[in-house]
Amino acid sequence: MTMSKPGDQTLNKFIELARYIATQADQPLTLETLAQRVHLSPSRFQRVFKSIFGVSPKKFQQAARSDRFKARLRAGADITEAIYEAGYGSSSRVYGQPMHGIGMTPKSYRAGGKDETLSWACRDTVLGPILMAATDRGVCFAQFGSDCAALQAQLRAEYPHAELQAYHGESSKQLDRWIDALNDYIQNKQPRPDIPLDLQGTAFQIKVWEFLLSLKDGDVISYSELAEGIEKPRAVRAAASACGANRIAVLVPCHRILRGDGGLGGYRWGLERKRSLLDAERARKARARQQ
């Protein structure tokens, strides 16, 4: 059964409730307690909440708690103090979640990535220079640019206090292989490479990026279809913004999103690159059909 879209009155009630959850992120909030505030059964409440915000109430609260935790770290709070003020209850609740929406340990985040080491390499590809950087969890940055110096500056701006380790000689083999595999894929020589990714963003952004990763090679969708795909049809602009915030070119395929009229729309690395990527994918799809 398809659930009808919430009316304006219901939507306003849920927006107000979302604000309440955000302000009470450090408190234990049960599904039953929240459902009572909007006079719905817990199961019905969960379905409506997810249809509006794209995530469950629990995940929404977790994201709000994480935001509060990160804000306290940025303000200079002691890590233990920040953990308890955010409502985690114990340090294991934080360190047991290695991604935690920030892609690094709380200590590293508080210090602007000071204790995080990112290995990077810049190489030429058929679409121009690309700089790829990775944590020990996977690629967190892959961007095209005009030259390596400009791309290095972008990486430094993204991780101002991290240790950036340029790969040279023998130590560069892993990133070299990943960039070569990506370049072969762009040139239609090889299938999409299976490269580990370290997605770093908000819960909503990661939801968008994970949906993009589920698209098949050669498929394209509109921004409205993207919003529908993450079960948040009213969030077209927010979904488009998440695409624009993507730091991992090609591997997180935001180039597969078109305008509703079929136009290319935007692409942070230039429309010529977007057109080339789409042309290569269409060629692969056509070739697969003929086989």
Order of helical and strand elements: HHHHHHHEEEHEHHEHHEH
Tell me the CATH architecture of the largest domain: Orthogonal Bundle
Which fold name fills CATH's third level, the topology of the largest domain? Arc Repressor Mutant, subunit A
Secondary structure: helix percent: 40-55%
Mean pLDDT: 80
- Please state the oligomeric state of the protein chains shown: single chain
Number of helices: 13
List the strand order in the largest sheet: 3-2-1-4
Structural class: alpha/beta
Radius of gyration: 21 Å
CATH superfamily of the largest domain: Homeodomain-like
Given this structure, which CATH class of the largest domain is correct?
Mainly Alpha
First-residue to last-residue Cα separation: 39 Å
- Poorly predicted residue ranges: 86-104
Largest sheet: 4 strands, mixed
Question: What does it look like?
Answer:
- Residues 86-104 have low confidence and may be disordered.
- 32% of the residues are buried.
- The chain has a four-stranded mixed sheet, sandwiched between helices.
- The chain has 13 helices and six strands.
- With 291 residues, it is an alpha/beta fold.
- It folds into three domains: 8-97, Orthogonal Bundle (Arc Repressor Mutant, subunit A); 117-186, Methylated DNA-protein cysteine methyltransferase domain (Double Stranded RNA Binding Domain), CATH 3.30.160.70; 203-290, Arc Repressor Mutant, subunit A (Orthogonal Bundle).
- A hairpin with a 2-residue loop joins strand 2 (128-135) and strand 3 (138-144).
